[in-house]
Amino acid sequence: MHAPFSDPIVSISGLEKTYASGLQALKSIDLDIRRGEIFALLGPNGAGKTTLIGIVCGLVRPSAGTVTADGHDIIHDYRAARAAIGLVPQELATDMFETVRNTVSFSRGLFGKSRDPGHVERVLRALSLWDKRDAAIATLSGGMKRRVLIAKALAHEPTILFLDEPTAGVDVELRRDMWAMVRRLREQGVTIILTTHYIEEAEEMADRIGVINKGELILVEDKVTLMRRMGRTTVTIGLRDRLEAPPPGFDDVTLSADGLVLTMSRAGGTEESGVADLVKTLAARGIEFTSIDTTRSSLEDIFVDLVGGNGGGARS
User: Fold this and answer.
1) What is the mean predicted confidence (pLDDT) over 171-184?
2) Domains plus CATH for the chain?
3) CA torsion 54→59→63→69, rounded to 10°?
4) What is the pLDDT of residues 109-162, one digit of tens each?
């Protein structure tokens, strides 16, 4: 796996946003995103994800705080900061009557980049759009239109790529292609920040996880550490004959009402030795078992625990 560099490419300090309605969408957000990592920002509906992305990308003005993108202040050095960023928004907003190649080339020109048909071709080929290069965007399927949004975001060779719900409503093939492309970009040094309500995608793709809820960043942690610290592993042992009680000495083992299933559940992951000790004890007592199954908490389980069941959703 590509090892992220230690220096931050996006630095957010004391960031707040209160809308004219009085809604406080963000409450003193502090966050550093490391150069070269894939960072997943998770949160329920209305948590503040899209507001946060909008501020970093210069689309929403903050009420307080500072943000730098690749060393550039997003307000005082807006053009340089924005040139470092590619954004794939949720909405399919683009000129439907323009051709694929022209709209991607135009996006490159918007950031002051010189014409580079070779780069545009590489981007379109990577997204399986080259065969559609001369097609009007209006004639494309929903999945192809989303590929065009990604191509537009990559047209000016950004060092930071925001993906705001990039796979919402797209087919499995596109999701697979997109994540393969994300991995390639990360290998090239592009930093990826994504929001998604497909939490299994974050579990598979991300190096670190941030969870935002009600405008507050409640957790930022390395994914593996988070899964180990907050996860739970459950081992279920099916018994051949009914037991009257769990074997003594195992406080975290319960017995089903019918006496035929033992369950060991441990926070932070069940140690192999604990399972082995239980199995040895059963064998020593002549207790035969028919099955052993192990399940571990998914990131989604942890996420639901963190936000009190107010999970999922694209809007914020």
Assistant:
1) 81
2) 8-227 (3.40.50.300), 232-296 (3.30.70)
3) 70
4) 888 888 899 999 999 998 889 999 999 999 998 888 888 988 999 999 999 999
- Average per-residue pLDDT for the chain: 85
Give me the count of residues in the chain: 316
Task: Look at residue 229 in the predicted model and tell me its pLDDT.
Answer: 77
DSSP string of the chain, one letter each residue: -PPPPSSEEEEEEEEEEE-TTS-EEEEEEEEEEETT-EEEEE--TTSSHHHHHHHHTTSS--SEEEEEETTEETTTTHHHHHHTEEEE-SS--S-TTSBHHHHHHHHHHHTTPPP-HHHHHHHHHHTT-GGGTTSBGGGS-HHHHHHHHHHHHHTT--SEEEEESTTTT--HHHHHHHHHHHHHHHHTT-EEEEE-S-HHHHHHH-SEEEEEETTEEEEEEEHHHHHHHH-EEEEEEEESS--SSPPTT-TTEEE-TTS-EEEEEEET---HHHHHHHHHHHHHTT--EEEEEEEE--HHHHHHHHTTT----S--
Task: Write down the pTM of the prediction.
Answer: 0.78
pLDDT, average across residues 244-263? 89
> Contact, 223 vs 214, CB < 8 A?
no
